[in-house]
Amino acid sequence: MNRSFLITFLLFWITPLSAARPQPAPFNPSKEKVVIMRTSVLRINALIDQKLAQEKLPYNSPMNDFLFARRVYVDLTGTIPTYEELVNFANDERPRKRTYLVNKLLASEGYVSHTFNYFANLLRIQTKIADKELGAELFMGWLKDSIHQDKPYNRLVYEMVSSSGSIQENPATGYHLRDKDMKLDHVAFMTKIFLAKDIACAQCHDHPSDDWTQKQYYAFASYLGELEIGKGQDLKKQKDRKMMFAEKEKLFHHPRFS
């Protein structure tokens, strides 16, 4: 059994969310992207109009420049703008200054740092001394570089889920190494993060409020059952290096389903 089905299954759900973020200025998207963005905006506006009409609520008044700048800074960099930044933005007379500000922040180190912190928390990255041998710093560096490159979400997830080899050569393996001694828990974390499905209960018993059964949990876990962590033949003299490799025919078994 291999991991190709698991990867395909995950990407089936992830791909719709995989559009790359807007690139830094100058802002010059292709006609196709413009159509996609306009279609998305119209769809969102229609949903908002529908909800406001249902609830009989009035529209909010237009947002002024100061409030817009503050919200965008907090959203994209996790910080509030300085007084000077607010004044400069308010005095900017360009008709598309809000677009330029968004692109400027997306190209900033503040955005990289803020987005990295979000993913580091989501992926439960640890930097304590015990994890140094597993190359947590290499994985963190790879993640930051991916954000710098504006790597699409589906590509980012694919590289983590399908990763193999040494973390020195392929830092994305740090995703699997994080849960090296908790393979069954790793399955629950993976589905919760990438599929928005909390199936942890099914590890011990049939899920009480969802369709997941314990048998399905172990069947799903078997796609990761072939993952092993060990030393490659060329790494005998390098005890601090770890490798992620596949050991075929290694499945998870539970006495209840034997």
Query: What shape does the CA trace take?
Result: globular
- Number of helix segments? 11
Low-confidence stretches: 5-27, 231-251
Strands ordered across the widest β-sheet: 1-3-2
> Which structural category do the helix and sheet elements fall into?
mainly alpha
Q: Can you give the helix content as a percent range?
A: 40-55%
Please provide the ordered H/E string of secondary-structure elements.
HHHHHHHHEHHHEE
**β-strand number:** 3
Protein name: DUF1549 domain-containing protein
Pfam families: PSCyt2
Organism: marine metagenome
Summary of the model, kept short:
This protein is mostly helical and 258 residues long. The chain has eleven helices and three strands, in the order H-H-H-H-H-H-H-H-E-H-H-H-E-E.
Give the helices and strands, then pairings.
Layout (H helix, E strand, L loop, with lengths): L3 H11 L16 H25 L9 H13 L5 H9 L5 H10 L2 H14 L13 H13 L4 H9 L3 E2 L7 H4 L5 H13 L18 H8 L5 E4 L12 E4 L12
Antiparallel strand pairs: 1-3, 2-3
